[in-house]
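cron nightly-structures :: item 1 of 1
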Amino acid sequence: MSNRLPPAWSKHLKSGAAPKPRWPQASPPQPGAPKTNSFARAQADDALLKQAYEHQQAKRLGEAQDLCLQVLARTPNHPLALYIMGTVCLGYDDEAALRYFARAVAEDSGNPYYHLSFGETYAKLSEFSAAIKYIQHALEIQPGLVEALCALGRVYTQFDKPDLALPLYEKALKINHDHPKARTGMAATLTGLGRMDEAGAYLREAIERRIDAPAAYYELVQTRKFIEEPPELQSIFRELDRPGLNADAVQSLHYAAGKVQNDLKRYAEAFDHFNKAKQAAGYKFDIDQYRRFVDSMIEIFTPGLFAAASGLGNPSDLPVFVVGMPRSGTTLTEQILASHPGVHGAGELAKLRRVANAIDLRWSAEDLSKPVNALTPELTRTLAEEHLSYLRERAPAALRVVDKEPHNFELIGLIALLFPEARIIHCRRDAIDNCVSCYVLPFSSSHSYNADLRTLGLYYREYDRLMRHWNEVFPGRIFENRYETLVEDQEAQSRRLIDHLGLPWDDACLRFFDREGAVTTPSRWQVRQPIYKSSVKRWKNYESEIQPLIEALGDLADV
């Protein structure tokens, strides 16, 4: 097996929820150990890596990892073994994935797929400049590599440069008219730009040509709201009857059917599809472990800690953090803010989470006090300045840069240590509406709390408990942006938001839906519309179907 990936390897390997790596316990071979015949060793390595690839394709990640570690124990810098290890770590430990891909690139710099995966991992972590660099390296090696053209298009769209993405997809489609990533990527970019009709044309053609039809159906039904049953609904039902559908296809089709049925006010049928989509995903979430994490955060991040931490970090007022549960209005809030000429909306950035992971401030850590106690004044200043450079790269002239990663609500304590003057906006929404809006969307495995209604309700209670703690520790510092208040009086609440940022009012903030640029979150259709009130108390449409959620929310459910 050659170290250069054969065509079957060119697709980005999906890892799903990876197991915790079982790092080898034995010491590496010592210099004096007996040497095997190098040709025989290479053959043995190739045989093991072929098996590892098969395990990877079948998502048997633990087995793939074990075989790669066997190879690396005797051939420490085998590029293909390093590459497969990188794919195994994706989704579990993205920092480890970066390290493995970096080593693979160093060992075989002429392999475009190694550069491509390295770049895609950086993109996943919102490190867009590095992502562009390595994906462009892949294209220098192989200019017609469709996967790299599509990956670069996705990065430019996420980096708010959709004008650079469109020609890449056009080139990819000229090379391979039927490549699913090229066709759906082009459609997603057009949808993000608000060019729904053009996106729909690409998706309909994808369906006609059987190019990843389930994903195309899902994207197609997101391009508009239905007031009468479209012919696509019966087509979706027929797709669901096809034998041999994988879990991803089943999810896409059920979410698509549910969205159409919801538009048509067939709520019971819609929710049945959403439930079946969740069952197909099969996610599990350890709510007890998460509850212990929240306990630790409350125990460690006390008013006394911050009183003793005076002078840490950087006093810059450039960063703005918009936090809250997903689907609480974070995208709408960012769009309003970013319509101001002094504000740049950077989307959902992974940078703060990377910092937290690097110091082991994560909810799987055994002792959260260690990373917090290790934050010296010098370290906080270094981390803060690096973060500011990362933000300035996106918008050098901006007065404020908005990071709207919702789950940064977990890291408000870290934000306060690094950026004592940063603005924090907490988006809050009716608890039942918020949870239902989460449940009906295809979130990734990183949102596995969304797996079932009861778990979602219990998770929401923990989120609420942690936010109440932050408000007690930082009284008056966190601006609470109620979704219902915003839709009831858009101008008054928008003015409060801009005032919280310390900026003068600008009327452009009232026409956020005219703002240019790409929107890549699930709210991309809604934020192209003026504010509407139909999402308030939407949960009542599903009242009989969501009793487990209401019971789990307890006193937080406003019934």
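cron nightly-structures :: done
Residues 274 and 440 are 6 Å apart (CA to CA).
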